[in-house]
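Example record

One chain of 119 residues, shown exactly as stored in the release files.
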Amino acid sequence: ILADPNIQRSDVDAIMRTIVSRWAADRPVLAAIIELAEYDPVVRETWQAAMHAVAVKAAAQFRARWETTPGGPADPDTIAEIFTWMFERSCHQLVHDPASADRVAASMAEIIWRVIDYH
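Predicted structure tokens for this chain:
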């Protein structure tokens, strides 16, 4: 959906609310996975692979969005990888309850909107 040239800010807001609310609902399990990934190489590899898969999808969306933008970013893969880990860390550190989930979702939507609509 991020590649859609007609995407509206309200679409980005809705996407982020959905994703962050899912994170909040699954927070205990995700926190345990993240903690275990610090100590267990198999879990770490699995978690990193999952995050990489998200980044690959995001990079494809960014690339499609920017392909007609003059002077678009040269490395959407790294931008997507950084954004994915930024999202993971932000949710892990900042999403503790519905109010914090709302703030994080709104802020992430703002960041995404500015990244995809920078021209």
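Notes: The helical segments are 9-25, 27-37, 41-66, 76-94, 98-116.
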